[in-house]
Design goal:
94 residues, mainly alpha
């Protein structure tokens, strides 16, 4: 009896195309294009659509900033009471 013959099989996936990795920003832009559909627009339509989207994002950001600025002083005043409250509770329990 001889030694068994070992045949190395060729990998089936050697010729398969592997796309390069996308960075995070390109992936987000791709998702935006596919989700909202501006890739099917002409260049002028895409410009108008993207301008409207950017304007809406700016206005939403401005509204959020305005709300945060108005809420920050009352929240900051509450934060100032926390150390005094903790100190009071520690002294009371000691």
């Amino acid at each position: 009896m001889g030694k068994p013959v070992i045949i190395k099989a060729k990998k089936d996936y050697d010729g398969v195309y592997e796309p390069e990795r996308m960075n995070w920003l390109r992936l987000q832009y791709y998702r935006y294009q596919v989700t909202l559909g501006p890739y099917v627009f002409t260049s002028h339509e895409a410009f108008v659509f993207n301008t409207i989207v950017l304007l809406l994002l700016f206005l939403i950001g401005w509204a959020v900033k305005s709300i945060v600025v108005k809420l920050t002083p009352p929240l900051w005043n509450l934060v100032l009471y926390i150390p005094a409250t903790v100190l009071y509770l520690v002294q009371k329990n000691a």
